[in-house]
Amino acid sequence: MQITGSAISLNVADPRASARFLIDHLGFVEQMASDGFVSLTRPDAGVNVIYLRTGLATFKPARIAGSAGEGLLLAFVVDDIDGQYERLRAEGVPIETPIETEEWGERYFQMTDPNGIVIQLVQWV
């Protein structure tokens, strides 16, 4: 087996709002979209991010078709955590957790998208 791509799919009430957040603030681009579905890509991210509208009849298995969010962190490793923090604050992005550094070398902050998805930017120091 050879894995040729990776994606994470998140159920949210408003896929367009979450997609717009990643496009506007993190440089993702829309790869494809349809009613209730948006797929985003970024060549350096290593993963596509897909947003599905909660309650889509095509979501399988139906027993787990609830919304994403609780306990979920969408994390991206970046080079300049301090620069990104200042840029995003200046853009008015809602910061959930200011910059912190863990004892194991993870320096990070968290922000929240319009659907409540927590997005974490990380730099290993």
TrEMBL record:
InterPro entries listed in its UniProt record: Glyas_Bleomycin-R_OHBP_Dase, Glyas_Fos-R_dOase_dom, VOC_core
Span of domain VOC: 2-124
Bilayer-crossing regions: none
Source organism of this protein record: Nocardia mangyaensis
Entry-linked Pfam families: Glyoxalase
Highest classification ranks of the organism: Bacteria, Bacillati, Actinomycetota, Actinomycetes, Mycobacteriales
Name of protein: Glyoxalase
